[in-house]
């Protein structure tokens, strides 16, 4: 095959042409300065882009020195010796001013690039209760051209976010295990991605933590104590510990009314959301918020505006807020001690200053959570519409977005020039994802239901602490039975 035939075969058998590598600079560089760069590079090619010139420089025939004393220069070729350039390059070409933008340079190739990134779902709306990290998240995903495009919707509570997703105002949100239960039972939402912490599985241990200097506080007798909780109806901070105490007979249940049971057993508490009619449809008990720290309308709110909300908030309540015991996740205390958190309230907190309260009345170090805990709880999960609003195409698009997002931003280190998904800027914590999260994991299809995901033990615990836990399903069953009874009576009447 001749040289011309080889060239023709290449022209015929290819995927198409693409723009070559380009030298770039900041858009802040003036046109005059860019022309200077072009002139400099053109001169560099003239000097070092030719083999002949280098050889002539190092093999000058005009030398009068004896060959044994001559030190030859090592030949330098711009396109072979400089690693920034492609080895097959032969020269550099100056671009006109109109070509000095990414759209002007790429031309028709830009359509191909964007076509690869085409997504059948244009937008995904994430519902958040705090907008402190929302804007940075949206900007970070846009910077990587990730699709579908993410926007944020501010809900005034997790319940409001559930309603927004069901009604199509929002598409997804990140919920605690307790909220995953409510979202599935009452709003037909399904979990599809879970967080992973240090256990390697989408779960964590619920633990009770007390101060080492307070030996009188033990799990089997907390009557009259000051308690710190993550929030009303949340997994580790409310459902699991209250179910444990009630099931073992240490607290009177009052017929599954855990709020009344807690209010009459504990002296003071901080249970964010305990005074909200969205979460407490019964009698409000003021002492359930006596330890809370939020000012004005933020007082005892079930979101980040209340300083003692969430896992870090409950631990902070123990550290500085007068609490005797905090019900939190097994990683929380270790994440906020020994200088890991820089806020003033955590500066003097040491791991050895706190201990786990075990179910048998003993104590253990914070590292012994595997043997000293109240039970396992499923990790926080991202939820979307199920039931009649279920859309497979949308769900797959959401999964792809979060999976690719964590490839770019799934880290915990943070600085002014980068974004990290699993980090919340002080003084906040756990704003969208948990700060303890290490990665996101797609939930298997067979577990994309609140009951299958949370497990039987958690469902049982929820029924112990919440009289209305299964109200929706019970009401549906009652209506079905009533309808069948009326239908049977009418049918019998017609035959008689």
Automatic annotation (TrEMBL):
- TM regions (residue ranges): 469-490
Quote the InterPro entries the UniProt record gives. Answer: Transferrin-like_dom, Transferrin_Fe_BS
Q: Does the keyword Transmembrane helix apply?
A: yes
Localization per Swiss-Prot or TrEMBL: Secreted
Q: One Gene Ontology cellular component annotation?
A: early endosome
SUPFAM superfamilies, per database record: Periplasmic binding protein-like II
Would you kindly state one Gene Ontology biological process term found in this protein's UniProt entry? iron ion transport
Chain ranges of the Transferrin-like domain: 124-467
Read off the Pfam families from this record. Transferrin (PF00405)
Q: Please verify whether the record's keywords include Secreted.
A: yes
Q: What's the protein called, per UniProt?
A: Transferrin-like domain-containing protein
């Amino acid at each position: 095959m001749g040289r011309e035939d080889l060239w023709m075969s290449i022209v015929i058998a290819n995927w198409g042409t693409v723009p070559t590598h380009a030298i770039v600079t900041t858009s802040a560089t003036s046109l005059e300065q860019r022309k200077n760069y072009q002139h400099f590079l053109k001169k560099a090619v003239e000097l070092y882009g030719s083999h002949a010139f280098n050889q002539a420089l190092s093999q000058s025939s005009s030398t009068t020195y004896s060959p044994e004393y001559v030190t030859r220069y090592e030949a330098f070729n711009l396109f072979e010796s400089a690693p920034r350039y492609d080895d097959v390059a032969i020269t550099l070409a100056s671009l006109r001013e109109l070509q000095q933008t990414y759209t002007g340079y790429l031309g028709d190739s830009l359509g191909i690039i964007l076509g690869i990134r085409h997504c059948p779902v244009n937008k995904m709306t994430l519902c958040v209760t705090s907008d402190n990290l929302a804007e940075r998240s949206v900007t970070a995903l846009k910077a990587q051209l990730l699709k579908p495009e993410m926007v944020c919707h501010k809900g005034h509570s997790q319940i409001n976010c559930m309603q927004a997703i069901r009604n199509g105002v929002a598409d997804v949100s990140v919920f605690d295990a307790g909220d995953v239960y409510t979202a599935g039972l009452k709003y037909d939402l399904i979990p599809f991605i879970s967080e992973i912490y240090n256990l390697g599985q989408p779960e964590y241990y619920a633990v009770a933590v007390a101060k080492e200097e307070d030996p009188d506080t033990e799990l089997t007798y907390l009557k009259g104590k000051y308690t710190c909780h993550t929030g009303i109806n949340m997994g580790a901070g409310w459902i699991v510990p209250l179910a444990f105490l009630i099931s073992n007979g240490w607290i009177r249940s009052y017929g599954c009314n855990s709020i009344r049971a807690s209010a009459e057993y504990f002296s003071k508490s901080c249970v964010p959301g305990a005074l909200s009619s969205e979460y407490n449809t019964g009698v409000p008990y003021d002492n359930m918020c006596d330890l809370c720290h939020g000012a004005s309308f933020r007082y005892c709110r079930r979101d980040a505006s209340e300083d003692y909300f969430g896992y870090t908030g409950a631990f902070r309540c123990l550290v500085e807020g007068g609490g005797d015991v905090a019900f939190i996740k097994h990683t929380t205390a270790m994440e906020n001690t020994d200088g890991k958190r820089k806020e003033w309230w955590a500066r003097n907190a040491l791991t050895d200053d706190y201990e786990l309260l075990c179910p048998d009345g003993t104590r253990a170090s914070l590292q012994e959570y595997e043997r000293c805990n109240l039970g396992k709880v499923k990790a926080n999960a991202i939820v979307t519409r199920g039931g009649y609003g279920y859309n497979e195409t949308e769900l797959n698009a959401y999964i792809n977005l979060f999976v690719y997002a964590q490839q770019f931003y799934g880290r915990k280190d943070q600085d002014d020039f980068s974004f990290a998904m699993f980090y919340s800027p002080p003084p906040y914590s756990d704003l969208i994802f948990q700060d303890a999260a290490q990665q996101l994991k797609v939930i298997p299809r067979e577990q994309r239901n609140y009951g299958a995901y949370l497990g039987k033990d958690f469902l049982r615990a929820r029924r112990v602490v919440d009289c209305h836990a299964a109200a929706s399903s019970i009401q549906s069953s009652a209506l079905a039975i009533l309808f069948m009874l009326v239908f049977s009576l009418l049918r019998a009447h017609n035959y008689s």
